[in-house]
Design goal:
Layout lengths: L1 H9 L17 E4 L15 H19 L2 H8 L4 H6 L2 E4 L5 E4 L10 H14 L5 H10 L6 H13 L3 H9 L1 H4 L6 H17 L4 H17 L18 H16 L5 H14 L12 H22 L11 H16 L5 H4 L2 H7 L3 H8 L1
Parallel strand pairs: 1-2
Antiparallel strand pairs: 2-3
Helix pairs in contact: 2-5, 2-6, 6-8, 7-10, 8-11, 10-11, 10-12, 10-14, 11-12, 12-13, 12-14, 14-15
């Protein structure tokens, strides 16, 4: 019922068929060539989502992507009567024309409506149009904040579509997604960890997670994904390096990664250790969850690396640190009720009673 209400509200404004062939009625025809900022959406399995995307394209993205002269004609009140009396079409591609009609800024779909479209993508697990949609929202000055990006990353991960997020990061200037934001980087790398954990750190999902993690790490060398202060730069934080270590070690165990890769990440984690904050001193429950999302992959990465004899010589102080972090993690896990964290395979293993403890309980 809530989804139906959201959809009915989203389409309360009439969806006009603004894009049409100029031969349907007499019009002036003006051509300014194609505009790369105008998105093209592919059909999905959801007619409602297709309709919502088309509405945003016709009522927001195309009008705002018009050249300055045509944009003035659409939005300035003094041109409204003239435009109503003498409709104008502009060619926006080789096969498509757009009819200029008078609008005010209040006529445009709202930012709340834009978020409803994202929710529809999530509900239908249709993310094929996510990149062009987010790019067009940015072009329209509809900003996506870090909390919303975290939501998008989490939901694309649930649908197995994290590659879409990497593409959004690769084209950061178009989407606004920057991995220099620690919260966004934490969310992405935890979801990559979770993807492999759900596959018991084996098989194609784990190999794919390592590939995406390495692509993300490579992107983080670019200026748009970097922070000048190394202490605040996510790519130099143990949780990023620890996730790369975890995934590479898991892949090495199944002969899908070179041991040299594991050794390299082990050395980097050892060098970055002082920049981490692992202890159970979080001020709030939310901060404890954030700490857990960082620590689970770090702990598991060290544990897996210690199990690879050829990498052991590069693990430095891992054994002592791993034992210490295990106790910290158990204490942290006992304080939270977050389903995502408690459902993590590494977390469940940590909370599982040891055989001797089970024997004492059954005695």
């Amino acid at each position: 019922m809530m989804a139906q209400f959201a959809m009915s509200r989203l389409f309360r404004q009439s969806t006009t068929s603004s894009v049409r062939q100029s031969m349907l009625r007499p019009m002036q025809a003006r051509s300014y060539g194609s505009n790369a900022a105008i998105p093209t959406f592919t059909s999905t399995s959801s007619p409602e989502l297709d309709e919502a995307l088309e509405r945003f394209r016709n009522e927001l993205f195309i009008p705002l992507a018009l050249p300055k002269r045509q944009r003035k004609s659409v939005f300035r009140e003094k041109y409204a009567t003239q435009l109503q009396n003498e409709p104008i079409t502009v060619k926006i591609s080789e096969t498509e024309e757009f009819t200029l009609t008078p609008k005010t800024r209040h006529d445009l779909p709202s930012k709340k409506d834009a978020l409803e479209v994202l929710k529809m993508m999530v509900a239908t697990k249709n993310f094929s149009n996510l990149f062009p949609y987010l790019s067009a929202l940015r072009m329209s000055n509809y900003a996506i904040n870090s909390d919303r990006w975290e939501y998008i990353i989490r939901k694309t991960s649930d649908a197995g579509k994290l590659s879409t997020i990497i593409e959004c990061a690769r084209q950061s200037q178009r989407t606004g997604l920057s991995l220099s934001n620690k919260n966004i980087a934490r969310r992405l790398f935890f979801e990559l960890h979770r993807t492999a954990a759900q596959a018991d750190f084996k098989g194609i999902p784990t190999v794919k997670a390592l590939k995406l993690a390495r692509e993300a790490a490579s992107l983080m060398d670019a200026p748009e994904h970097s922070v000048e202060d190394i202490q605040g730069d996510p790519k130099h934080q143990p949780f990023v390096i620890g996730t790369l270590l975890e995934l590479s070690a898991a892949c090495a165990q199944i002969q899908e990664a070179d041991i040299a890769l594991v050794r390299g990440y082990a050395q980097k984690l050892d060098a970055a250790w002082s920049r981490g904050n692992f202890k159970n001193d979080a001020a709030t429950g939310f901060e404890t969850i954030e700490r857990l999302e960082e620590n689970l992959a770090i702990y598991n990465g060290m544990r897996l690396a210690l199990g690879l004899p050829k990498a052991a010589q590069d693990t430095g102080n891992f054994k002592a640190r791993c034992n210490e972090l295990r106790g910290v993690l158990i204490s942290q896990l006992q304080k939270v009720k977050n389903v995502n964290v408690l459902g993590d395979e590494v977390a469940k293993t940590l909370l599982r009673p040891k055989p001797e403890q089970k024997a004492e309980e059954n005695a």
